[in-house]
Amino acid sequence: MPLLAGPLPSPLRTIHIMGICGTAMGSLAAMLVDAGYEVTGSDAGVYPPMSDVLAGLGIEVMEGFEASNLDHRPDLVVVGNVVRAVYAEAQALLASDLVYCSFPQMLGALFLEDTRSLVLAGTHGKTTTTAIATWLLESAGRSPGYLVGGVASNFERTARACGAAAGVPRHFVIEGDEYDTAFFDKQPKFVHYRPRTAVLTSVEFDHADIYRDLDHVKSAFARFVDMIPEDDGCLVAYWDDVNVREVCEEASCELRRYGPGCAWDGRVLDVDPIEGTMRFEVLHQGRSFGVFESCMVGEHNLWNQVGVVAALDREGLTAEQLAVGFAGFRGIRRRQELRGVVGGVAVLDDFAHHPTAVRLTLDALAMRFAGRRLWCAFEPRSNTSRRALFQRDYASAFDAADQVIIADPGRKDSPPSEDLFSPVTLVGDLLARGIEALHVPEPDEIAAVIAANAMPGDVVAVMSNGSFGGLHGKLLAALTERFGGDES
């Protein structure tokens, strides 16, 4: 059972991916096909659209994690994070002499060599900053490689290899995920990503299934900071976050601080609620560096974008190039994404699930849709939100909303009952704060309640890190039934 410990096998022609239907894994498969490798894969629940994408790439996908999936004896097996050691295919792999590695390890070995790796990390904001940084480099003609943990509207894929842009560094922009790597590698994914320039947006306790406490989380990020090379590395850090400051204490590389009153500062100039855009100014050493317009609205998005500007200034982009890029950025799916408007009621989708992310997103929506009634339907689905760890923190996370509906936890593999998050308790806490709140267990009921009570001009934010039982579509259908007309 040879776990890859050095260079990739040579010759390397055939690669098998266990867990190929995940968004990132499917994009990796496309990169490998582009590079000329013969790719196969396996997964449970193989269905469109990913099954169609993989079929279009000529990739054979095997249903289920069966031992026989390895009978063709690939040169290398890439094991996805979704795969558990108890699966039959994993057991067969461990018992064989096949060479295997994790997705992050292979990405580092095959696609990050001889590139300038730009890693965007933090508890919050890393998908947004990664997508924006990638597009800004693309818009400036740099043809970066990238791996984004969400679907950016400017790109057809969530990952690709570096292009060839003459006379400029080869950049690879990657989301620095602190989640663990694989069942045989419990290090954070970002330890494999070889950061040269990095942005650190925030450090908070999250991923309770992986980390014991905040100190454990900080130790992971401190290790990440220590990986940035002293000679030509650069760390761009949000200095208003006390945990970020503590993590960066031992940084030996160039340190660029951003945030209120820092060397890289910023301010919101105005928000266009019709266009859904924000105009903001970035200040460097107290002087205007540039004025930009972006579709990412809100105070937290201001700082995310200031951090990206500081990083890409380091990489040689001008304020003029950045302005063109920001103006052309079209956003990210599941980040304040407008799913439709029916009867004057706007339905948005957002990935927020940590209490800080919920608060920041609702604050941003209140800024974007000032004067309009704001609903929030929240599903506690992540490993952390289904636990009682943040029960009290959630009570203040919904202050910007006018109407809140809390669903039952969205997954059934719950932690022990004494550790469970309580929707009923949260509703009581919200009512005590003067916020209208209800506990409505299931998506069908939530759609019916909102559709019966929403009024033209209302905004509904649907928040979950999963599908929320298709609530977006159900709500738009229920609104159409009430108000008539077509969804838009």
Return the CATH topology of the largest domain: UDP-N-acetylmuramoyl-L-alanine:D-glutamate ligase
Low-confidence stretches: none
> What's the rounded overall pLDDT mean?
87
> Which CATH architecture of the largest domain would you pick?
3-Layer(aba) Sandwich
Q: Can you describe this structure?
A:
- With 488 residues, the chain is of the alpha/beta class.
- The chain folds into 3 domains: 14-106, 3-Layer(aba) Sandwich (Rossmann fold), CATH 3.40.50.720; 112-328, UDP-N-acetylmuramoyl-L-alanine:D-glutamate ligase; 337-483, Mur ligase, C-terminal domain (Protein-Tyrosine Phosphatase, Chain A).
- Helices cover 31% and strands 24% of the residues.
- It has 14 helices and 23 strands.
- It has helices spanning 23-34, 50-56, 88-95, 103-111, 126-139, 214-227, 242-247, 299-314, 319-328, 355-368, 391-395, 423-432, 443-453, 471-483, and strands spanning 14-18, 38-43, 60-63, 76-79, 100-102, 116-121, 145-147, 159-160, 171-176, 180-182, 185-188, 197-200, 234-238, 254-258, 264-272, 277-284, 287-294, 337-342, 345-350, 374-378, 403-406, 436-439, 459-463.
- A 7-stranded mixed β-sheet has the order 8-7-9-6-12-13-14. A 6-stranded mixed β-sheet has the order 18-19-23-20-21-22, sandwiched between helices.
- β12 (197-200), α6 and β13 form a beta-alpha-beta unit.
- α5 (126-139) packs across α8 (299-314) and α5 (126-139) packs across α9 (319-328).
- The chain starts with 13 loop residues before the first strand and ends in a 5-residue tail after the last helix.
- The mean pLDDT is 87.
